[in-house]
């Protein structure tokens, strides 16, 4: 596909932006109209043929969704962006395993690949704060993830890339990429203040208050700025909220933790010339939890119950960032971008037990430790049009460098390691080069091959080839497909031989005769691990005409070398002596193959007005055909069989809009075998969480150009789900679905 515009002989960045707008309009018409109109204001005479960059072309792939600022206004998340992102096709919220641990701390899971295979970006820069949280034996982290570092009011759009389109981003993008794009400086001085409140009908469920402010505009002829700040608080659920789901003699599992957020971020843009721009960005964020009694296993002690009753902050994360970006335009479609960035996360937590039945328990709230994670990141891209024979192409050359440094003294505080080395610092670095070529072979056929090479200082080289294609069968029907090899390097806990998980014996595996292995059993980090590998394939068809839209995509991921710490899957090691004690030294290891298959689709129906401008019905769905470990047959995570998201959007007048939503979840099945200790699961631990639906209704009113209000009801029919255990001892009922809540948003612009 080629894109032809009227353009001046020198092709400026805003022309390239127009190309991107046209590309995005194919999948999200409501976003592109205003943006394309603005870009067209600058068009002058002279005809130039431009082929969009590979990145722009990939954003038209089947596995791509765009969430706009308008979408965020219509469906404001209470606090975490994952609440809105989960309404996209192929997206769910899950844990990183089927263990059920930390069930209410679910994170974004793309196409069933797990949260650890979802890469979060802010303005194209990877966010790694969750990597400062200790990874447990089952692969879970007691963390909220990295989708809550930017307030909703500061976002221009969110790009959700799934499958082969994400291969260009390297390690950690096997499931896909969430790119959060913040608002940029404006030509005139502008600002806004957003106030949001959410109140539950039942006071046992959490409430939210947040306040955000944005200011941007020019400082001088060549300098402009953007500044945003926000404060938010989401209360914790009542400590006994799940008591209805357990017998009266049991300590109920924890509900959802609360969180306090503080964010401030500033961007300074310097237009050196019309062709060269520098952007300086710096920010600080704070997230602190409000403890609700979360624990790794059923049962808690008096200290933990007291902390939950008081809503004490048991963990706090401070995140500092700084970056500088250069953007260049060299005429005739040749552009470049270079970014240098730094991220530091200080993760302070009340120390939890590391061994046996006490794992995850808190005995002394004054005993805290801090892990420190630093990331240095550099990346660059150069885009240039090339014409070979009659084939128009846009070639992208790029590089990337990532360096991580983690210091977690508590993870090795016991001083018991294989080599008697108590160094708590882990380091890794990756260098990468990539090339992409967007080739318009015919007016109907676009081919996008790509190749990325990463070299990890511990795990060597990795090639990530990809191939995406788009064929216009007609003006309304397009076939699209892709295949890519993606990898994920072991994280800094899994690869550090000085990081250990301990169990006094109760967590040791069982022998085939049914007896438990004599402990203690230790699990150490392993420097000899192989990266996890996924070959992602997708094939889809899309129809778009006059507001009608329909699509169906089949995705198939072959996944191998998943890194686990399941002692039941390992040979039983002989005792070794550490610190005068005999222990069995297990390790993190690579497991066998897994398969993930499913379908994604959408159906958009215009009901009133041109292309549905007055009333439209939008639907998308995800259907999981298969998600399991091939060796054990166990699910990789607890995930709905299907998810359907529907919305009825009515623009009643120029001032009034109404939105009705419905989300339908299929049944969720737990595992029936525990590979951690090689035992079959029986009884209530096999319980299935049945299908259910959540509805919402909201209305917005534009009182004036400067003032907007929106009010609504979430979970309109008060469908409540309760967590029945802290792990999976009660099957798939591992998280809460809150009851009916009411929200109000006020936005003032100046």
Automatic annotation (TrEMBL):
Keywords: Cell outer membrane, Ion transport, Iron, Iron transport, Membrane, Receptor, Signal, TonB box, Transmembrane, Transmembrane beta strand, Transport. InterPro entries: Beta-barrel_TonB, Beta-barrel_TonB_sf, PirA/FepA/PfeA, Plug_dom, Plug_dom_sf, TonB-dep_rcpt-like, TonB_rcpt_CS, TonB_sidphr_rcpt. It is a multi-pass membrane protein. One of its GO terms (cellular component) is cell outer membrane. A motif (TonB C-terminal box) lies at residues 733-750. It is found in: Cell outer membrane. One of its GO terms (molecular function) is signaling receptor activity. Gene3D superfamilies: TonB-dependent receptor, beta-barrel domain, TonB-dependent receptor, plug domain. Residues 63-177 form the TonB-dependent receptor plug domain. Belongs to the TonB-dependent receptor family. This is TonB-dependent siderophore receptor. It comes from Lampropedia puyangensis.
